[in-house]
Design goal:
globular; 65 residues; 5 strands; alpha+beta
């Protein structure tokens, strides 16, 4: 992903207003709030910050076991 660091510094989760961490491998922005933890896709270097497009990462650990 090629996202502008200045843009990343001002983006927040639309659901809870927490900051993001970047997951380059999955091309996603992950909410840093542990109770929200939504992953928003980044398509063609454009973050898609729609709650309906986000996936939950809360039960990702349970699926791996």
């Amino acid at each position: 992903m090629n996202l502008d660091p200045d843009l990343l510094s001002i983006l927040v989760c639309p659901k809870c207003r927490s900051e993001f961490r970047v997951d380059d491998e999955a091309s996603e922005l992950i909410c840093t709030n542990a109770t929200c933890a939504l992953a928003y896709p980044v398509r063609d270097d454009i973050p898609v910050l729609l709650i309906d497009e986000a996936r939950s990462t809360l039960d990702a650990g349970a699926e791996e076991n």
